[in-house]
Each structure stands twice: as C-alpha cells, then as structure tokens.
Amino acid sequence: MRLKTLLPSLTLFVLPAVAAAEDHNHEHNHDHGTSGFYGHLHVKILYDHVYKAEEADEEIDEAYTHSHLEMGYGFGNGFSVNTNIELEGEPAGHDHGGGGATLDGSNRYFEDEPLFVRALTANYDKDYFGAYAGKFDPVISFDQHIMPGIYGYQIVDEYTVREKIGFGGYAKLKAGDFGTHRLDVSTFFADTTFLSNSILYERGVNHKSDGGVSNTEDFSSFAVSLGGSDFYSLRSDIPEGLSYRIGFAHQAAGEGDETSEDRYTLSGQYEHVFTSDLRGRILGEIVHINHLGGEAPHDRTYNTVGAELRYQQWVLGSTYTYINNKNPEDADEAQNGEVFQASLGYVFENGIAVGAGYKYQEEEGEKNHRIGAMVGYSLTF
Prior knowledge:
mainly beta
C-alpha cells in the first residue's frame, strides 16, 4: 500500500481528536499504580523544498512524516506492557529504511515510509527502581525530541542507538534540593526478530549474517548512563532548571566488523522561566564514537548546541551541530561536517502545531539547503 494514499485519510481522521500538547520524554512515566490503558500519540508532517544542493538532481520537493503512537497497559501493581509504534519518514540522504534512495530529480511525497514497532517491553516500576525486557532504545543521552526546532530531532536520529533486544533496569535517588538522579543500565543485541521488519515499506528482517555492531544475538553489548533534574536552589548552589545525562555504550562487533564500537555522551540543559508568558532553554550535547560502525580507523564526534524561546504559544528554536571525523584510511569519510537548523512555530491549545524552518547541512563534502513547513499534533490519553 502506498503511504501517499493512506496518510491524508489518516490525518483527517486524527486531527479532530487532538487534545493537549505534551513534551516528549524517553522514559515512560505513568503512575506505578496505573490500571488500564494509557498512551501518547504524536504526528509530525514536514514538507521541504531543497533549493540549493551539490547536484541538480538533489534539488527537489519532498514530504515525509515522523510520527509515533506510544501505548501501554498497567496492571495496577507496578507491572505494565508498553509499545512504541512508529511511522518514520526521512529526508533525502538519511537511511534508516526509506530516505536513502538515489535521487533522480523527481519530487518525493511520502515515499518508502516504514510502519514498524520501535519498542515493545514488559516493565516493572516502583518509586525508586524498575526493570524492563523486550525491544527498546537503550538510554544513553538526551531523547531526540528534546532538541529545539522542527528539524532538531534529525541530527540525533543519525547516531541514536535504537531497536535492540535485551533487558535493563534503573534506580532513582531523590536528593531533595540537590535533584533527582536516575541510573540506567541495559544489555542488548540488535533486533533480529520479525519485529525488525515493517509494513507499508518493507525494510526486511534483520539477520545476524547481515553484520553490524551489536548484531550478535548475545548480551555482549551494554549501555549505562546517569541523568538528573529537579534541582532546587534554596539550599543548593545548583541552578534550578538544570538537567544532565552522562552515558557510555559498548556495541560488540558483528559479522564482518573490524572491531567493536564504544561511545561516550555528555548532555546538559538549562531552562529558565522569565515570566508566566516567557521561558527559554539552552542545551548542549557531545557524543564521541570510537570505531564508528565497527570500522577500526573511523572515529566521529557530534558537538551540538541549541536554544529555544517560548512566548505564550509561539516557539522559536535552533540547533547547530559540528561533526568531527577522523579516518586516516579514507579521505572522504574523514571530512568534517556541520548542520544548522532554525524554525518558528505556534502550538494551539487543542494540541495542533504549525511551523516553518530552514536547514543547512554539509556532510561528506556535500552541501544542502532547504526550507520547509510542518504541521503536527499531540494527544495524551
């Protein structure tokens, strides 16, 4: 089934049902005693015009979606089951399943967009600890949706460790004025079950023989991170509005890989409330990857800074990422890159959001300029 015929009907069906907007968080955070169904639906549709690129065939119009439905069922005793179903379109040049197609100058409207299960876990949550097992994204750094701007999530999507099979747990420490801190630990391998496939656009089932870091079908890969927030300045020198996460992940070499991959992350954010109508935040994230994708000579570092200003229901956001590559064996892969994006949006009280933005990127020596518009909505139930 072609997504371009399905999506308009889907959009007309869901938009009237929109309720309140909600910020994203990569921790499911329902009450531990919740009994029954709960969920969060987020739809984001982007329409871009690429007006300047290295090749004329790359100057196109394209429309794609980045949408997901998170659902869960709580049994009222700390146990729950949770899933995240994603419809993930991509701008040209990305390659998680659909966006890596060769461009020939033709416009792309909802082309090759997979619908798939990104996460499916059984969970046990209490006030100070929890555990989970199934398919999930290991917690290493900030969630991609925390990045300001309508294109902010896309740079994080390039390096997110995602769709793993395994188990993990967390422990929380509530330190009063000195914040709440959470330690996350998990062990995993790449999803090789039928859930690695998709519908609408078939990515194909992932097999161990396909290779790739963490594609080992054993628990030789792991992630650990520490995050904190909720500081209070009355008896602490730590400013209110501060949050952080420090992480490490080891992904074991799969078939055909030269070596394993290690990554180190440092993320921080500060949010300030100026008035009841005006608030802002700044953030930064460094992700250093040794042996990117299992290539022994290839290291990469993503250095991102961002800022957002909200006035009533207006949202102005931007990020800049400098990509540092080191690969003495391949001059093309050793080229550094950068990505800048900025946008202005408006969030209505019923959850519908609209926005317009600009994005510039230079990766692997190729430059690309685009402008675009976004419409989205968010519904919590």
